[in-house]
Amino acid sequence: MGPHSRWPQEGSRDLCQGLCCGNLLFPFSVQSGAQVVICDKDGEWVSLSPHPQPLLPHTQKSWPPALSSLRPRSPGPQPLLPQTQESRPPAPPPSDPGVQAPSPCLPAESRGRALEQELAGTVFLLCDVTREEDVRALISETIRRFGRLDCVVNNAGYHPPPQWPEETSAQGFRQLLELNLLGTYTLTKLALPHLRKSKGNIINISSLVGAIGQVQAVPYVATKGAVTAMTKALALDESQYGVRVNCISPGNIWTPLWEELAASTPDPTATVLQGTLAQPLGHMGQPADVGAAAVFLASEANFCTGIELLVTGGAELGFGRKAIPGTPVEPPIIPS
């Protein structure tokens, strides 16, 4: 829940600001006992934990956030290996100020290639989830190399800069829907035949603001709310095949994006403090927190489907200042 009107308060977005990028697909065996690698934003090892290791992640977009594996996202470091590069919607015409396309994750490919060499069994593939042919190729390559698919992590996404409703455009909204919602839909739909065979699972990265709202973020909030709703509907449909479908909704996750946004404000220190105090726990989350949640849903949460796992530090709890600065204030009226 970051400072009023300034940020993408979320993990998926934040999480998507790091090294790994985008959606993750990986075949793995829960019995494999392989290690899960958690890295920082520069790809340095932070910890290794005994969780099933995804053999092959495929992804795209901004770095994988939690769940992926390399410092994710975002979206955050995660479990195993994520890799790809940011998927960008078609560049908007310069004449339309309401359309703002995401910036490319330039270091993603080189870091992904390096990770491929460092982690045995890792395969890096670039995939733009807004292009169905890319997604088909991604899944085909996964099956060709590993023979099966057990888990899909839909993490590709983007959070535009803050905009009041009148500053947005239908074109910009459509582009955001293509990436944040239809990208998740397309990869999920094409992966389902394989997930049904393996009785696998899907993890969608949504956002806390999809449930509670966010100032100056109507299109983004709408796309994330839709991701959460789609998760629940899909969980019902796929239960007959033994496929679990869940989502993670991060809150304030300290990532390069948060740091960058804070630096753009008049008082970065005050901005960071405001974001920090939004959590009852008194601190922001780390990408690894989202990654750990994803690992849990992918490998141990066998009786969980259709859930929205909040990784927020309790930011949604209690009362707080909600009125936008400048809103007319009216004193309470006591009935006579």
Automatic annotation (TrEMBL):
Gene3D superfamilies: NAD(P)-binding Rossmann-like Domain (3.40.50.720). Coiled coil: none annotated. Keywords: Oxidoreductase. GO terms for molecular function: D-threo-aldose 1-dehydrogenase activity; estradiol 17-beta-dehydrogenase [NAD(P)+] activity; identical protein binding. SUPFAM superfamilies: NAD(P)-binding Rossmann-fold domains (SSF51735). InterPro entries: NAD(P)-bd_dom_sf, Sc_DH/Rdtase_CS, SDR_fam. Residues 56-73 have a biased composition (Low complexity). GO terms for biological process: L-fucose catabolic process; steroid catabolic process. One of its GO terms (cellular component) is cytosol. It comes from the Eukaryota. Residues 50-107 are annotated as: Disordered. Belongs to the short-chain dehydrogenases/reductases (SDR) family. PANTHER family: 17-BETA-HYDROXYSTEROID DEHYDROGENASE 14-RELATED, SHORT-CHAIN DEHYDROGENASE/REDUCTASE. This is Hydroxysteroid 17-beta dehydrogenase 14.
